[in-house]
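Q: I'm building a small set of examples for a reading group on sequence design. Run inverse folding on the following structure and report the sequence directly after it, with nothing in between.
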């Protein structure tokens, strides 16, 4: 695998933006963020979900601020989070009435670490300029960064009409999708230029231009990245549910990240009924980690299984080990230096089992059909013990726990 240094050295250079203690862009590691789906007015539920997203590894959490009651709830959410020791920065998502809410509820503005505004939803005509100015002046007043987040579902219609007219009268008119992409980029860049004119510093601006098509997203961000040095928030909007949402987001983001584009990412997954909102955080982390850009949790390599395995035991073991390391990581992360770089392997038979297990820090090769019912364990490439019987899962977890305690230095304090 190419080293992380080589990959990161190819990253697009961008102006760094401090969001509380988190830096976006300016050479900082790509930041993982997420968004709640609770009613912000429900302080208890929103606090709980923000904390859950932060525990999963979200480094910023965005909440909707869509009404006076939601704005009033924000300081309480911040306070409750601080009370439980969760200091994840909160980002307020404003549409239509953000100028009013931020002016009328200064404690809301102060409690947030960043404001997200959408130039397509700021207002129309003359009001648009006034309301945009109010939003930017509020950010300047409280020294808050802003994400100017353009979305093709809510594109500034006046700007779109203007660009369509310019295109129609050009000697070389382009097709409608080109015009749409150009309108998204123009909206973001012109809004950022206007924000700077009003007084917001360049290092307080993050841009995004979200669309729901993979190829469109890649084209838009390549162009946006080439035309400015603002920090970029990357995400496929309305990615969808389940594997479709994950695959589409991964396809789009991994190409752009590989090209060095993107300073913070959010995966917009629709949770399945009863599903955890934290899944979007896990997917974001897995994209960055599998690409070698960051490390968050030990990776578990597992074979897919085939006709050589007659039971689902090894699948259950792989799942249980994956769940175990994610759970333990909450504690390990605080206690051990570098444990996120550990690799584990859970394999189904002798064909690739020993080989893959030897490549991992700790690996286990379970017996396939017809093989003797034993499971050799490899630690740093050496076979150390052979497990058998009904307690293999617990014994393997203990071996992993011992490995962590022995191999990774304790953090100071
Ligand atoms: S390691 Fe064995 S069980 Fe797993 S996919 Fe390969 S042949 Fe099948």
């Amino acid at each position: 695998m190419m080293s992380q240094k080589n990959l990161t050295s190819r990253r697009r250079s961008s102006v760094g933006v401090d969001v509380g203690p988190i830096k976006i862009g300016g050479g900082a590691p790509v930041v993982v963020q997420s968004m709640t789906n609770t009613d912000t007015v429900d302080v208890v539920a929103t606090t709980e979900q923000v904390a859950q997203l932060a525990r999963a590894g979200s480094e910023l959490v965005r909440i909707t601020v869509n009404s006076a009651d939601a704005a009033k709830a924000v300081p309480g959410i911040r306070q409750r989070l601080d009370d439980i020791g969760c200091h994840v920065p909160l980002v307020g998502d404003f549409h239509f009435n953000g100028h009013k809410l931020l002016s009328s509820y200064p404690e809301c503005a102060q409690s947030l670490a960043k404001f997200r505004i959408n130039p397509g939803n700021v207002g129309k005509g003359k009001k648009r300029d006034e309301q945009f100015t109010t939003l930017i002046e509020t950010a300047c007043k409280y020294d808050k960064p802003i994400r100017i987040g353009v979305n093709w579902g809510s594109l500034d219609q006046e700007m779109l009409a203007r660009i369509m007219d310019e295109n129609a009268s050009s000697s070389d008119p382009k097709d409608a999708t080109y015009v749409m992409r150009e309108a998204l980029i123009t909206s973001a860049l012109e809004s950022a230029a206007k924000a700077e004119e009003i007084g917001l510093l360049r290092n307080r601006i993050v841009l995004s231009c979200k669309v729901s098509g993979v190829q469109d997203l890649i084209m838009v961000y390549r162009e946006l990245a080439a035309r400015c040095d603002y920090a970029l928030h990357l995400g496929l909007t309305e990615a969808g549910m389940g594997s479709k949402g994950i695959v589409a987001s991964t396809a789009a983001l991994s190409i752009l990240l590989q090209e060095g584009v993107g300073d913070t990412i959010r995966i917009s997954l629709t949770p399945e009924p009863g599903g955890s909102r934290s899944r979007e955080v896990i997917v974001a982390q897995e994209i960055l980690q599998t690409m070698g850009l960051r490390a968050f949790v030990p990776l578990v390599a597992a074979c897919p299984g085939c006709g050589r395995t007659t039971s689902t035991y090894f699948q259950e073991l792989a799942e249980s080990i994956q769940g175990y390391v994610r759970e333990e990581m909450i504690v390990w992360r605080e206690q051990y230096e570098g444990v996120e770089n550990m690799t584990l392997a859970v394999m189904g038979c002798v064909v690739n089992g020993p080989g893959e297990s030897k490549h991992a820090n700790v690996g286990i090769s379970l017996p396939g059909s017809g093989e003797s019912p034993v499971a050799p364990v490899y630690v740093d490439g050496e076979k150390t013990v052979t497990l058998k019987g009904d307690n293999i899962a617990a014994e393997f977890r203990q071996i992993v726990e011992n490995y962590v305690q022995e191999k990774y230095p304790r953090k100071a304090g």
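The chain has two domains: 17-291, 299-407.
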